[in-house]
Amino acid sequence: MLCQVADTGCEILLRSESETLRAGKIIAEVSKGVGIIYLSGSLGTGKTTLCRGILRQMRHTGSVKSPTFTLVEPYEIGDYRIYHFDLYRLGDPAELEYVGIDDYFSQPCLCLVEWPEKGNGYLPKSDLLIKLEVYKRGRIMRLCAGSTLGETMSARLTEDFPIKTQDPD
Ligand SMILES: Nc1ncnc2c1ncn2[C@@H]1O[C@H](COP(=O)(O)OP(=O)(O)OP(=O)(O)O)[C@@H](O)[C@H]1O
Ligand SMILES: [Mg+2]
Q: Which residue has the CA at smallest separation from atom 23 of ligand 1?
């Protein structure tokens, strides 16, 4: 089970790419550089865009692409350590043991994990599980908090963006 606590049921609307980037900015602000964020959703739903928004707010100035040939892209920005995982190509979740997955999660850092379901059973619990889905010309973002940090992130995001039930259709 990816979401181990009661789903907060928050569904917000991100109407453009720039709104996804702004959601990332908010997550980074609340995180203060620490936390585990799972990013779930089919291909092309905006997971990497959200990571880009987070990393930009953490003062990363270069490009942000999903790691393709490695599972993880590390970023060292000042005192901050950010690890961007993309587990899409992971064949067997047990392979995560060979890359020393526990070492990444046992230090004070921000871990962003695309395709967390591929690592089922080998990843620690997340502070926030984000599920992205295409909706009209934008995206729906579903938020599922796993800790008080995740609850704070979720609360900040629902303050800043319209929730889906307010969409007139
Ligand atoms: N809220 C949004 N509304 C409309 N388009 C968006 C939104 N957020 C991101 N996009 C667009 O979605 C496309 C795919 O984004 P992105 O590469 O971040 O997806 P992804 O989920 O990481 O895909 P993959 O599973 O292939 O890694 C990009 O063209 C991006 O501009
Ligand atoms: Mg991606």
A: 44
- pLDDT (0 to 100) of residue 3: 57
- The per-residue pLDDT for 66 is 84
- Taking alpha carbons only, the member of 132, 117, 118, 95 closest to residue 20 is 132
Distance (angstroms) between ligand 2 centre and the Cα of 85 equals: 9
Q: Probe ligand 1: pick from 11, 16, 48, 63, max atoms within 8 Å of CB?
A: 48
Q: Domain span at residue 55?
A: 10-166
Contact 84/99 with Cβ under 8 angstroms? no
What confidence score (pLDDT) does residue 163 get?
86
Q: Alpha carbon 13 to chain centroid distance?
A: 16
| Atom of ligand 1 minimally distant from the CA of 16 | 3
Determine if ligand 1 sits within 6 Å of the CB of residue 49. Answer: yes
What is the per-residue pLDDT across 120-158, written as a single tens digit (0 to 9) for each? 999 999 999 999 999 999 999 999 999 999 999 999 999
Structure tokens at 74: 């590390």
CATH of the domain at 49: 3.40.50.300
DSSP code of residue 163: B
Domain count, the chain: 1
**Is residue 112, in this structure, part of any structural domain at all?**
yes
